[in-house]
Request: fold
Amino acid sequence: MSASSVAERNDLTLSKRRSLRYKLRPLLRDKWASASVLFLIVIVIMAITAGLFVPDDINSPDFGARLLPPLTDGHIAGTDQLGRDVFGRLWLGSRVSLVVGFGTVFFALLIGVPIGMVAGYFGGWFDTILMRLVDVQLSFPFILLALTINAIMGLGLRNILITLVIVGWIEYARIARGETLIVREREYIQAAHVSGAREWAVILRHILPNVTTPLIVIGTLQVARFIIAEASISFLGFGVQPPTPAWGSMVSDGLKFILSAWWLITFPGLMLALVALAVNITGDWLRDTLDPRIRNR
Reply:
């Protein structure tokens, strides 16, 4: 085989590996993961475009159209007790769930990971204080602690986000600390010390890349947890306040009409269940893909 043929084959192979289909092949092989990612993309698009397609008067009462069943007078998911379109409110409420779910994970990671890595790497009094905070938080039920902090801070979307970050960052700090304790004992970390690398350079260049994978997986799985937590807080009346729609508060309002208007509780509850299921399936796929101990079985 000539050199030009070998070079052409290598270029073809490299082009194939750079293609989007090749990079997505592990995802496309898993039908459940593919369907979950596609569903989440649709939900994200819905949240982004809610302001463009949902009418501005979606929260305005229309008492002449109260409790219309689905597929009546152009209302896909029916109307609620005030005559408001349920589908439009579901669409607008997707913003709240996604902002809380992904926003909480982002800020909790941003706060917890550096603190956990510093505690695990340097140890000492800082590590002791962190572990005592972990012990204190784990002694309280997650939702009870979130409700307590939210009741102190006040109602509203911003305060829900802050509350869940306060409750959730310690979990990521604990995981980052544990991974750092493992990684810092490996040979290449010792070699970096011998070569004269500074402590912060070792943390950023060698330890952070090695603790990123488990944190990404845990963070993905925690998105569903925070979405359900926000829905629970809104369900109990401590979350996003009317007339702003949130899936949890929609379920709470629908309970009063569960026998006469089943769609008021069914559709927001179904959206919560589907989003949580899709996030968990995606997180499981990421764990199986990124964790070499599972991938090499």
About this structure: The chain is about 75% helix and 0% strand.
